[in-house]
Amino acid sequence: MGSVVYFSSATGNTRRFVEKLGLPAARIPLLPKDEPLRVTDDYVLVVPTYGGGNLKGAVPKQVIKFLNNPENRALCRGVISSGNTNFGKAYCIAGDIIAAKLGVPHMYKFELLGTPEDVSRVREGLEQFWQKTTPTQA
Fold this sequence. Notes:
Blueprint: E1 3-6, H1 13-21, E2 25-27, E3 43-48, H2 61-67, H3 70-74, E4 76-83, H4 93-102, E5 106-111, H5 116-133
Parallel strand pairs: 1-2, 1-3, 3-4, 4-5
Helix pairs in contact: 1-5
């Protein structure tokens, strides 16, 4: 089974959502001075949408830096995004942008911290996704 890679700002909304999933996860560093994250296994990216409703700046700079590493980019199998419905058409647009650039599915959208139903749906969806995409060992 793959893992979850996520970015969370200092507010920690995305981190709290990912922790509720109870799945293996790694955080993209918040600060530029921190050691960069390098992945070696398939993962689904969980990303918040920035920019307050603008397309410019919707994808956090830390996520862009992480995905600029070809090895990290190659192992991404899908994107889940959070956002604020107050952003209108730009709600969860970071996920749309990343999914389009990487050619992977935008698997789920949730608002802010997500609801218990969002957590349940994402957990179940990821378990099914990894069962379908991970070859079984004979």
